[in-house]
Every structure is written in C-alpha cells, then in structure tokens.
Write a structure and sequence with these properties.
Number of domains: 3
Oligomer: single chain
Strand content: 5-15%
Number of helices: 18
Distance between the termini: 70 Å
Order of helices and strands: EHEHEHEHEHHHEEEHEEEHHHHHHHHHH
Structural class: alpha/beta
Radius of gyration: 31 Å
Number of strands: 11
C-alpha cells in the first residue's frame, strides 16, 4: 500500500492539514506539513519527500509555481494538486508541468489511497528512469520506461476526459446513451449494452445498445437476453465488475441498489497478442465510468422527483385557472397533443419534446394574473384590455422563473406569442431567436383558437383555418413548421378533439 511514504501536505487551511496528516499517519506514512510555499521549499530541500500534496492557492506563492520549483529541485518527487475550484485551465497547466493528479475539494479520503498508489507507481518509474539515465547502463529499459510513462499520461488523459464528459452532461442529455458512447470509445468495444433489472422477475431487460457498425439507439421492444445462472447470480449480488469470456459486466448501483448493468464486448481486431481481452487500464476505466454513471443516474432520479413536485404545484395553479375559465383546460390539452404530434413529425430532439410536454398544459399559466372582467369578457377586448391580456405570457414566465430548474421552460412560455417576423409580443423577437418549442406551440395555439367557438364568435372551419395558417407562413409562423403542420392536418393524422 502506501506505508513508509514520506508525504508533504501544503495548505494554508489548518483543518485540511490536520485531516490529511491524521489520515496519512493512520496509513503508516511519515507526514510533513507547511502552510506557505517558502516553508514547503525548505522541507523539500532538507527532507526526503516522496509525495507532495499542494493547494493551488497559497498565501505567498501560486501552487503551480511551487510545483515547478519542486520539480526543478527534485524531479522524482510526485506532486498531487488540490483545489476548491473547478478551473480547467489550472488543471491542464498543472498536468503539463508535471503534476501526477488533480483533486477537487471536498474529496473522499478512501479514493485518495487509490490515487496515492497510482502516484507512487508513477514515481517509482520516474526514480528508476532517472537512475538508468544517470548510469547509462540499460537503454532498452529506458525505452520501456518511456512507454510506461506514455501509458500513464494516456491513462491520466483518458481519466480526465471521462470525468469531463460526465460532468458536462445537462439534465436534458441521455445519460444512458452517453455512458455507452464513452465505453465504446474508451474500450474500442464492438457492442455495448445497458440493461435494467425487471422489478418483479429481476431478469435483465435490454434498454439501450451501441454497436460499432451501426451506431446507437433505443430498444423499442422488451428484448430479454438469456444469461446463465452463474452470471445472473453474480449480476444480482456482486458489487464489482467481472469478466466472462470476452464480455465485461459492470453493475450499476443507485443508493447501493443494483438497478442494472452495462455489458461490453471488446472489438477483437483491437486485441493484442495477450490471452486476456481486458487489461488493468480497461478495468480501471470501466470502474470509473460505472461510478460516474451511477452518480449521474441518481442525480437524474432526484431531479425528476423534484421536477414532479414542481409540476404538481403548477397543476394546482392551472386548476385555479380552469375553475375561472373552463375553455383554458380543453384548449391547453388540445394544444399540447397537437404540438407533440407536430414535434414528432418535425423529428425534434427528445429534450425539446419533453419541454413541449411540460409547457403545453401550462402555457397559459399567466392567465391567473388576468382580472376576471377581462379574462371572462364575452365580447371583444378594448385596446387597453388586450394590452393587459397580452401580459399573461410575462406573468407565466415570472411564475416559472421562481423555479431555477425551469429556466428553459419559462422562456418558452414567455415567447409563445412571438411572431416569426418579429411583430409578436412581449419582446418582438424573430426567427431563430424564438425558442423552437415556442414556435411549435404558437402555431398549434393559434389553430386551436381559430377552430374553437367562443361566446363572442363561432369557430372557423378546418379548411379555412388551414388556409389562414398557410397565408401567415413566413410572417406569423415559421415556414418550416407550417410545412410539416399542413400535411399532418390534411392527412387526418391528428385528432383535434
């Protein structure tokens, strides 16, 4: 393990020094500490330090500058940087200047052991390489060590890329598809599959796959693959990866519950002459991917739960509107169904459809702020009344903007009365400046309003409404959306009711 290692901890925070010093001491290390760069350099010169752990920000010297000084003084000292801030430029700069790893505070002490082991392994290579360079006795060994160092650099780069790709995921991204993409790239896998366990039978059910030949995609049928009893038992009980033949199985856990697993089959064309299809680096990367994927899935589940609670709150507001104006409920439901079918015809991205699915039923949420005398007026509105009525899109945005997670949805509600030519409200924006979901809802909203009867006017006939939509293409409506909408309505592919 790491017993007997001489460790230097450099941080201006006494509590962090205390925690790390106690941790390393418990693991059999000899610990030195410093709160300034000047003191750290003094210890480096006078003591036989193996590993230095440096904070990026110190009171007298920048941590990366201290790293350079240490490497100039004693190149064989392994350096691990740490910071409380996620600064990609600082990370890249530190790695270029010889850092072995980079930790973001707060970090788990258990994982620090693994990092120390990898770091010491790298240091042993550096020490041996320096010795060989000095003695000039074994050129072949130097070449081997260079290859090992290159492999280490590749490992660190891959590790950083994996973490970056998962960290860059938004709530609208498909974490399962992204996980398969990453595995396929890292392992050069010909097949990657994501399975969930059936809640009742605990049989694995294929959810998504990626093949090297034809890309990835959803599995639209209940595709259950038969696994041997030994594999099923290990999948349900074993907490770590395992390999069977050329298949690598990685359990996916959420709060210590096995929800499924990833299976990968490495491309045989990429195998070397060794008997084992998977190397230590492959296993390490798969474990890292499993940890990141599990964390993302857990966060997604928590987000969806929070999202559902918010939606229930908004539903209560919608119910209040419906009790004032019964037209609104039927109108919003029809607009939602129509918009979703149109989005499907347009082949919009999944997250855009999700936005429409959420916003559609509540796009007139802001009407709760409109006085009854205007909202329920049986006749035409005056100019002043119409001005007040138009404010409902802003009211809707103000209500949704109170929920940080609904930033995208609030903008869609605000813009659902904007026009393609820039003559709409409330902001008079045009074309692509209007969210695509708003443009879709705007068209369906208008069509439903035209073909619905109100106390002050009769409904238009379907064909007359479609002619009006066609006439307003390029002015009120996005022509590309109109181009999809008209055939959909003409074909009877949509049931308005």
């Amino acid at each position: 393990m790491i017993e007997g290692t001489n460790v230097l901890v450099v941080d201006d925070n006494d509590s962090i020094i205390t925690v790390l010093s106690d941790f390393f001491a418990l693991n059999g290390c000899n610990v030195y500490s410093a709160t300034t760069g000047k003191k750290a350099i003094e210890l480096i010169r006078n003591e036989d330090i193996d590993v230095a752990i440096l904070d990026v920000k110190l009171p007298d010297i920048n941590g990366v500058a201290l790293l350079e000084t240490i490497k100039d003084e004693k190149s064989t000292i392994a350096v691990i940087m740490m910071s409380g801030y996620k600064d990609h430029d600082a990370i890249v700069d530190a790695m270029k200047k010889g850092a072995s790893d980079f930790l973001l505070k707060p970090f788990e002490l258990d994982k620090l052991i693994l990092i120390m082991m990898r770091t010491l392994r790298e240091r042993s290579i550096l020490v041996e390489k320096e010795h060989i360079y000095k003695s000039l006795e074994d050129k072949k060994r130097i070449e081997l060590l260079n290859r090992e160092l290159q492999a280490k650099i590749k490992e660190l780069t891959t590790t950083y890329n994996i973490a970056s790709k998962f960290n860059s995921l938004s709530i609208y991204d498909d974490v399962y598809e992204k996980t398969l993409d990453i595995i396929s790239e890292v392992l050069d896998a010909k097949i990657c599959r994501f399975y969930f366990f059936d809640d009742c039978s605990r049989e694995p059910v294929l959810y998504k796959e990626k093949r090297a030949s034809n890309g990835n995609g959803d599995v639209h049928h209940d595709d259950k693959m038969v696994f041997g009893d030994d594999v099923l038992n290990r999948l349900n009980t074993q907490k770590r990866y395992f390999v069977k033949d050329d298949q690598l199985f990685l359990p996916i856990k959420v709060k210590d519950e096995h929800i499924g697993f990833v299976m990968a089959v490495k491309n045989r064309n990429s195998l070397d002459t060794s008997k084992l299809p998977y190397h230590d680096s492959d296993i390490f990367f798969m474990k890292l991917i499993g940890e990141k994927a599990s964390a993302q899935i857990e966060n997604r589940i928590l987000y969806e739960s929070l999202f559902e609670n918010v939606f229930q709150t908004l539903t209560c507001l919608i119910d209040a509107i419906n009790k004032r104006d019964t037209y609104t409920e039927g109108h919003c439901n029809r607009v939602t169904n129509m918009s979703l079918k149109l989005a499907e015809k347009m082949d919009l991205a999944g997250f855009e459809r999700d936005v429409i699915r959420f916003v559609g039923p509540i796009h007139d949420l802001g009407k709760i702020g409109i006085p009854d005398a205007i909202l329920l007026k049986p006749g035409s509105l005056t100019d002043d009344e119409y001005k007040i009525m138009k404010s409902h899109s802003v009211f809707g945005e103000e209500i949704l903007s109170r929920f940080v997670i609904l930033a995208r949805e609030s903008k869609v509600i605000r813009s659902h009365h904007e026009r393609y030519d820039g003559k709409g409200y409330p902001d008079a924006i045009a074309k692509d400046d209007i969210p695509i979901a708003s443009r879709v809802i705007a068209l369906c909203d208008t069509y439903d309003a035209m073909t619905s009867s109100r106390p002050y006017r009769n409904a238009m006939q379907k064909q007359d409404a479609l002619k009006e939509i066609q006439r307003c293409s390029k002015s009120q409506f996005d022509p590309s959306i109109v181009e999809c909408f008209l055939p959909m309505m003409e074909s009877g592919d949509h049931d308005k009711g």
